[in-house]
Amino acid sequence: MRLSVAIATELELAATCGTITDRGDYLVVRSTDPSYYFGNVLVLASPPQVGEVAYWTRRFTDEFRDNPEIRHVALRWDGSAGDPGARDELRAAGFSIEDHWVMSSEHVAPASTTFPIRALRPDEMQAVADLGFAIADDHSDTYRQFLNRRAVWKADLVAAKFGTFYGAFDNGELVGSLGLVPLDRIARYQDVQTAATHRKRGIASALLSTAAANLDVDRYIIVAEPESDASRIYTRAGFTVVERMVSAFNAPASR
After folding, report:
1. How confident is the model at residue 85 (pLDDT cuts 50, 70, 90)?
2. Which one of 137, 184, 198, 199 is at 20 to 30 Å from 91 when CA atoms are compared?
3. Is the dihedral of CA 207, 211, 214, 219 positive or negative?
4. Total Cβ atoms within 10 A of residue 242
5. What is the mean pLDDT of the chain?
């Protein structure tokens, strides 16, 4: 399967916390966390077409039948143009569709902030999860536990020196963070976040710049929702849209 940069880097990250099995016309990605939708996903060679949604749903169910905790269905497909495939059929079957910009830069613009920034230790990944929960729209216990499990993965990445997370602080309190994971000569940013009380103060831009300045690679990749505040920050930092990535998931509550 020829892979877009978005899918290629997604798979490299997935391999750090699970397994990838090649079935020929699709890949099976399994995470150690059953609640992680796009950690437990089928990666298709092309978008599902009209008449194929039920087939791919059955394939997902068959692949993950051995784990009753996996009750969602998640599909992601290769390609760089953002082709949604059978969008109406997916929605009729209860899927939500996600469309993201994949942005790239060879040089991240320098930026600074009045808040001190430093690399984070493995034992500080829980603080990153706490910040993520504070700014999230979902305040359920399920999401809280998901972030806690993701914090363990981040701590393992940092401890193994496979990736680095950076934090911005205000009087010792974490008010912004992100991760940067080198994947050969490409580096992929992870989970850029800023406390609601500290936005529009240059924190995200400074975090992007600091992380890039400490890593020698050929280019940096970041993913954002189209026309979002985040995408505008990334554009000012020197990123341009190089691909569109489309995915679909059917959450347990909607099945």
Report:
1. very high
2. 137
3. negative
4. 16
5. 95
pLDDT in tens, 188-241: 999 999 999 999 999 999 999 999 999 999 999 999 999 999 999 999 999 999
Cβ-based burial of 27 (10 A; exposed 0-12, middle 13-18, buried ≥19): buried
Query: Running DSSP on this structure, what letter comes out for residue 125?
Result: H
Task: For residue 172, give both structure tokens.
Answer: 């010792």
Residues 6+ apart with CB under 8 A from 6: 80, 100, 102, 221, 223, 243, 245
Structural domains of the chain ordered from first start: 5-100+245-254 (no CATH), 107-217 (3.40.630.30)
Q: Which residues contact 170 (CB under 8 A, 6 or more apart)?
A: 115, 198
CA atoms of 65 and 209, how far apart (whole Å) = 44
| pTM for this predicted structure | 0.93
Q: Which residues of 47-81 are buried (b: 16+ CB within 10 A; e: fewer)?
A: bbeeebbeebbebbeebbeeeeebebbbbbbbbee
Query: Looking up tokens 């969602």, which residue turns up?
Result: 72
What secondary structure, in 3-state letters, does 65-83 show? CCCCCCCCEEEEECCCECC
How far is 232 from 211, CA to CA, in rounded Å?
Answer: 18
At 226-235, the pLDDT tens digits run 999 999 999 9
Looking at residue 211, its amino acid is A
The two three-digit tokens of residue 218, written as one number: 């050929």
Do 243 and 78 contact (CB within 8 A), yes or no?
A: no
Phi-psi region of 30 (alpha: psi -120 to 50; beta: other; left: phi over 0): beta
